[in-house]
Amino acid sequence: IGKGKVVAEGKDVALLGYGVMVHNCLQAKSLLANLGVQITVADARFCKPLDIELLRQLCRNHEFLITVEEGTVGGFGSHVAQFLALDGQLDGRVK
Q: What cofactors does this protein use (predicted)?
């Protein structure tokens, strides 16, 4: 419980999907591959607890981390952003 997984490996941008949006992330990966952009797709699987090891790995290996969810303000993306800020991940190269 509480562990996400990397579904597809890339090097340019990491998409962190939550729930049914992981499928949309895989579609985006296919479309962007045509433009030469290599996308990592990760399935968060759980909102709580956050898989901090996965988040740190994505930040270490990518300049851009994008969360993809169906939620609203204060949802999964906000939860991830708060962790990244408190963990100092936003002080480095990750955007």
A: Mg(2+)
Compute CA 52 distance to the chain's CA centroid, rounded to the nearest angstrom.
11
Q: What is the reported pTM?
A: 0.91
CATH of 5-86, one of 3.50.30.40, 3.40.50.300, 3.40.50.920, 3.40.190.10: 3.40.50.920
- One digit per residue, pLDDT tens: the chain, 95 residues? 679 999 999 999 999 999 999 999 999 999 999 999 999 999 999 888 899 999 999 999 999 999 999 877 778 899 999 999 999 998 877 87
